[in-house]
Amino acid sequence: MLEARQQLLSEIAEFVLANDLEVTSGTLTIALRLCCGEEPSLERRIARRRSEGMPITSDWLQEITSDYSHGEEEMLNKLVERLETGINDFSRTTETARSATNDYNEALERHVDDIKSSDGDGPKLLSELAGYAQAMLERSRKAEAELRHAEEEAEGLRRNLERARRDAEFDFLTGLRNRRSFEVMLEEEYRSARANGEALSVAFCDIDRFKVINDTHGHAAGDRVLCVVAETLAKISDDKCHIARHGGEEFVMLFRGSSTVEAAEALDGARRALGARRLMNRRTGAPFGKVTFSGGVANVFAYDSPRAALSAADQALYMAKENGRDRIMLAEDCDSVETGVEESG
């Protein structure tokens, strides 16, 4: 265990020093996740950037990782603050109501006792008792109204919580599940499929030459291409096939009850459907040309963990890119098994 920790610390230090990175909490967190194998997509981006002769800087790392967590973390923090405020308000209201009811109950009990022990002052005590009862009734009604308002606020808070929870699980641009939601679903599907003896395959997809699209046509046009690819992949999804936007131009899919070959065939059908479309920049009228994606598929149960399977699928995707793009490759045989044709042009 000690040797493993020392090895991990050594790898983190090597990554930071080799890239001349600033030693900050953000940089160290990224380095830790990379060295633990928790960021296969980022590993591939770093490899690509190095192959292009570009440096790995702290600013670049922060820029490409901020989309994964900053927005969701900020949303959740605001949600927690609102939830705590609502709960505190509700607690104060109910405490006030209980205190008021308790005070008047005690006063009523004292007067009832006085009536029982009195000789000739009954009418006077009864009159006072009626006054206290009337006051208690008015206060109780007010407390009831406050409680009702608090309950309405709590119900509104619950609705907002549910809406915020859904927003935190889905990508705003494409409407697909986001990375965090997919990882939770992957763990759930992994346990369920293993318990039921079902096959489970995972796939990574990445739009080919997406940076060229953004640079040539602008980010708004790039967003439209992202949505078109998302819609194309969503057409093959069902209750046993789930898709999510993993970040940037990457998508991840989970095929329950499908072998890697079956999953690759389904994904390849989406690849061909996308390649047959001819997209155009609505603002300029300029064609995008043939928009394609590459993919890698892995058998989840062929690896030690779902995270390891994700890494294998990502590596297969990398091999698909290396072998000409516009194709799907299987993790179990990246060197010889591939589906699709080499991209023209």
From TrEMBL:
Q: Which GO terms describe its biological process?
A: cell adhesion involved in single-species biofilm formation; negative regulation of bacterial-type flagellum-dependent cell motility
Enzyme Commission (EC) number = 2.7.7.65
Record-linked SUPFAM superfamilies? Nucleotide cyclase
Example of a GO MF term: diguanylate cyclase activity
Which UniProt keywords are listed?
Answer: Coiled coil
- Gene3D superfamilies xrefs: 3.30.70.270
Spell out the coiled coil positions from the record. 133-167
Annotated GGDEF domain ranges read: 198-333
Q: Which InterPro entries match?
A: Diguanylate_Cyclase, GGDEF_dom, Nucleotide_cyclase, Rev_trsase/Diguanyl_cyclase
Q: Which reaction does it catalyse?
A: 2 GTP = 3',3'-c-di-GMP + 2 diphosphate
The enzyme's first-digit EC class, named in words, is transferase
Q: Which Pfam families match?
A: GGDEF
Q: Has the keyword Coiled coil been applied to this entry?
A: yes
| Any one cellular-component term (Gene Ontology) | plasma membrane
Note the PANTHER family from the entry: DIGUANYLATE CYCLASE DGCM-RELATED, REGULATORY COMPONENTS OF SENSORY TRANSDUCTION SYSTEM
Q: Which NCBIfam families match?
A: GGDEF
Protein name as annotated: diguanylate cyclase
